[in-house]
Specification:
It is built from 6 helices and 8 strands. With 179 residues, the protein is of the alpha+beta class. A hairpin with a 4-residue loop joins strand 2 and strand 3. Helix 3 packs across helix 6. It is globular, with a radius of gyration of 16 Å.
Length: 179
């Protein structure tokens, strides 16, 4: 059995797309997944399964959410060991203990490429935000006090690719990578 992480995009935000984590955990069990753990209320589910095709797993979860909760929610599935490998390749400036900086990891949902994402979002403002692309993620950091001056802040939520990405903070990513 392999250990996976499902990242559900856009649930339980400002009272929209509400899904109770306890109910979600039950639904994952009904799908035959094992060792299910949820983290926070934002759609982080860690589970084990023998299926090796992440697209199959993602489709199963998306269909279950549509059937059970009547929501169309994009789901990004990653092996826990793949997430750990991504974190090992994080840039030095990402995810340190500086509380003035907001560190995020942007997951690009297949088939979205970094080039498509970058073309849609635009060039980051180097004086306000740091960006590093690695495989299917983008490490993104910016000053908390200057977030409104960044180019990407509003565009990650309001662009044509916003439905094809999901974002987690450095702390969340590190926690779920170790669960």
């Amino acid at each position: 059995m392999k250990r996976y992480i499902a990242l559900l995009r856009g649930i339980n935000i400002s009272g929209k797309n509400k899904i109770a984590m306890s109910e979600l955990k039950k639904c994952f069990a009904e799908l035959g997944f094992a060792e299910i753990v949820t983290y926070l209320n934002s759609g982080n589910v860690i589970f084990s399964n023998a299926i090796e095709d992440k697209d199959v797993l993602s489709n199963k979860v998306q269909l279950m959410i549509k059937d059970r909760f009547h929501l169309e929610i994009p789901v990004f599935i990653i092996l826990q060991e793949e997430l750990a490998e991504l974190l090992k390749n994080a840039p030095d400036w990402w995810g340190d203990d500086n509380r003035e900086i907001y560190d995020n990891l942007i997951f690009l949902l297949p088939p979205l490429s970094y080039e498509e994402f970058y073309d849609e979002i635009g060039v980051p403002k180097a004086e306000y935000e740091s960006v590093y692309h690695y495989k299917n993620v983008v490490f993104w950091s910016f000053s908390r006090k200057d977030y409104q001056k960044t180019n990407w802040w509003s565009k990650t939520a309001g662009s044509g690719v916003s439905g094809r990405i999901t974002i987690r903070t450095a702390n969340t990513v590190r926690k779920i990578a170790g669960m």
